[in-house]
Amino acid sequence: MILPIRSRVLQYLSTVDQACADDVMEALKVEYGDESQYKKTNFIDHLLNLEANGLIDQVSYDQDSKGELRIYYKINDYGIGTINRYLPKKWRVNA
After folding, report:
1. Average pLDDT over residues 25-30
2. 42-64 per-position pLDDT tens digit
3. Dihedral sign from CA coordinates of 39, 44, 48, 51
4. 3-state class of 25 per DSSP?
5. Residues 14 and 79 sit within 8 Å (Cβ to Cβ)
6. Can you tell me whether residue 75 is helix, strand or coil?
7. What span, in angstroms and rounded, lies between the C-alpha atoms of 57 and 61?
8. What angle, 0 to 180 degrees and rounded to 10, lies between the N-to-C axes of helices 5-13 and 77-86?
């Protein structure tokens, strides 16, 4: 079963300490890489939306080798609770 991509981004963040859009894209490339929505701007939008909804927190930032800003996010307790309430059991945290 493939999750909607934003749900999968949130679920992925529950498996790592922190991640930026590039990290998330690389991790989900096998699952979503062939989809038209597999674009960095969309992944940044997913992360910003998850942050705006209080599911993840910004933890740091830096610049990549091209001088582009990378913002790193970490899932919070509310995000984990959301995963465990709404995602299928297979995707839950500590299920």
Report:
1. 97
2. 999 999 999 999 999 999 999 99
3. positive
4. helix
5. yes
6. strand
7. 12
8. 130
Determine the Cα–Cα distance for residues 85 and 33; give it in Å rounded to an integer: 27
Alpha helices by DSSP H, listed for the chain, are: 5-13, 21-32, 40-52, 77-86
Taking domain 5-86, whether its CATH number is 1.10.10.10 is answered by yes
CA distances from 40 to 13, 21, 33, 58, 94 (A): 16, 7, 11, 17, 29
Residue matched to tokens 């930026």: 20
Enumerate the domain spans of the chain: 5-86
Total-model pTM: 0.94
What pLDDT sits at residue 95? Answer: 55
Q: Find all residues with CB under 8 Å of 31, minimum gap 6, and list them.
A: 2, 8
Rounded CA separation 74/47 (Å): 10
